[in-house]
Amino acid sequence: MSEESDSLRTSPSVASLSENELLPPPEPPGYVCSLTEELVTKAREELQEKPEWRLRDVQALRDMVRKEYPNLSTSLDDAFLLRFLRARKFDYDRALQLLINYHSCRRSWPEVFNNLKPSALKDVLASGFLTVLPHTDPRGCHVVCIRPDRWIPSNYPITENIRAIYLTLEKLIQSEETQVNGIVILADYKGVSLSKASHFGPFIAKKVIGILQDGFPIRIKAVHVVNEPRIFKGIFAIIKPFLKEKIANRFFLHGSDLNSLHANLPRSILPKEYGGTAGELDTATWNAVLLASEDDFVKEFCQPVPACDSILGQTLLPEGLASDAQCDDSLRAAKSQLYSCY
Hints:
Domain CRAL-TRIO: 117-282
GO cellular component, one term: trans-Golgi network membrane
Strand content: 5-15%
CATH class of the largest domain: Alpha Beta
Shape: globular
Radius of gyration: 21 Å
Helix content: 40-55%
Pfam families: CRAL_TRIO, CRAL_TRIO_N
InterPro entries: CRAL-TRIO_dom, CRAL-TRIO_dom_sf, CRAL/TRIO_N_dom, CRAL/TRIO_N_dom_sf
Number of strands: 5
Distance between the termini: 67 Å
CATH superfamily of the largest domain: CRAL-TRIO lipid binding domain
Region (Disordered): 1-29
């Protein structure tokens, strides 16, 4: 291997030190790749991830964080930073912005992110509002199943549902397989009424979509909507102004046509509720997975936020989010859509 190649793979924070200089803080534990050869190849082709440069890329992002945001309270572990590099195809600048947005979103919406742990969401989990199917799709994507009809608004606010979704995404993204393959969302809107739909207004939509598009390191490969009533046209009118074209093109509305759904998600991975052969829909198993991760979430989301971090929530927002004035316009248009569709 050439001297130039060796220098690229050497941590600059170590190579540049002399014996008389202060040593940097100890580095986190070393990274060990868990990807199969097939996924390594997929990551190389789709995400521009080169195994021989991987640690160099992580170190470059780590150095950027330390230089540009020295007071940011964030993990700098190899495995953690890799999530952001993969989500932005190893573009350093975009990965850094995603990391900052990730923390900015968490600081700017305390109703969702304060005290975020599975034990605080037992009612949502018990309702069957969401789960993750036990089998992945043919591309290796986990399927997150969301059923808004299971939510009773008088029991708890809509933000509790959003908290449960975020917990699920955080748990899923721990897997390197998910970082490479992404996820698929299956949303069943059976029985969603006008009164329930009205809780998901433009302000909530802006925040949720801002997180999913620009504030969380996950690849959403498709959103399959089934059993949507006429009211869904109004719901989608709320959502669409905040969607990037790439994401909007990944929405598929199937109505009650399960054959259309099966053309995208095979029956072998679907529960019988959706015409599948994988048995009845099981929510208990995923609930148990989340509840078993209580300590990890307490450590990550239930600690005081350093005062020096508070500037993030005030100055940095995911790119592409609409202004409050735009939200007001969207709200008026959406209300008109909702009532005309009902």
